């Protein structure tokens, strides 16, 4: 553990573990790692990594942010994806194995990194693909008026999400 990055991560993981022991049920809240980092700061990190906002381990990030409740839900998402991919192998052997490999690679990656929006998109695609491929979707007819109403509602919702989620925080 002479490597600076490695020793910094190990120290960060120890800080995260202290935070988990302090609030195991529901955690510290989403995006609140910096609070427990400040509380349990280890001075040995000063020359390595003086400030961080994540544990650089997604499992610890989820656990510190949402406690055992959120952590089990997160493992449930991964498990659901693996279960679906395993069942998909009966119909589409190669695709089932590709999805299993993708979820395993994602899970290993989570040991050393943290999630971003794009890694979440990848995970959700990997989890949903087996279920979409196993079930035949029957086309249904929708009136043009219903389609226009849905498009309008989604457009308004998208505008609000864009404004409050992307633009307003940067102003």
Helix/strand layout:
Elements: H1 4-22, H2 33-39, H3 58-88, H4 93-112, H5 117-134, H6 144-170
Helix pairs in contact: 1-3, 3-4, 3-5, 4-5
What does this structure look like?
- This protein has 6 helices and no strands.
- It has 171 residues and is mainly alpha-helical.
What structural class results from the helix and strand content?
mainly alpha
Alpha-carbon Rg, integer:
21 Å
Helix content: over 70%
Sheet having the most strands: none
Number of helical stretches of at least 4 residues: 6
| Low-confidence region ranges | none
Number of strands: 0
Helix-strand topology string:
HHHHHH
- Say what oligomer this is: single chain
Q: Measure the end-to-end span.
A: 42 Å
Anisotropy-based shape: globular
Proportion in β-strands: under 5%
Average pLDDT number: 85
Entry keywords:
171 residues; 6 helices; mainly alpha
Short description, anyone?
The chain has six helices and no strands. It is mainly alpha-helical.
């Amino acid at each position: 553990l002479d490597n600076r990055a490695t020793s910094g991560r190990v120290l960060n993981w120890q800080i995260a573990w202290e935070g988990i022991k302090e609030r195991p049920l529901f955690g510290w809240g989403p995006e609140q790692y910096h609070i427990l980092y400040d509380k349990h700061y280890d001075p040995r990190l000063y020359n390595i990594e003086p400030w961080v906002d994540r544990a650089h381990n997604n499992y610890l990030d989820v656990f510190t942010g949402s406690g055992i409740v959120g952590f089990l839900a997160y493992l449930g998402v991964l498990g659901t994806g693996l279960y679906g991919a395993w069942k998909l192998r009966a119909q589409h052997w190669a695709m089932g194995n590709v999805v299993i490999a993708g979820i395993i690679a994602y899970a290993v990656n989570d040991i050393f990194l943290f999630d971003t929006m794009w890694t979440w998109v990848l995970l959700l695609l990997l989890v949903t693909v087996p279920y979409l491929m196993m079930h035949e979707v029957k086309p249904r007819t929708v009136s043009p008026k219903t389609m226009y109403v849905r498009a309008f509602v989604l457009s308004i919702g998208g505008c609000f999400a864009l404004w409050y989620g992307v633009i307003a925080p940067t102003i």
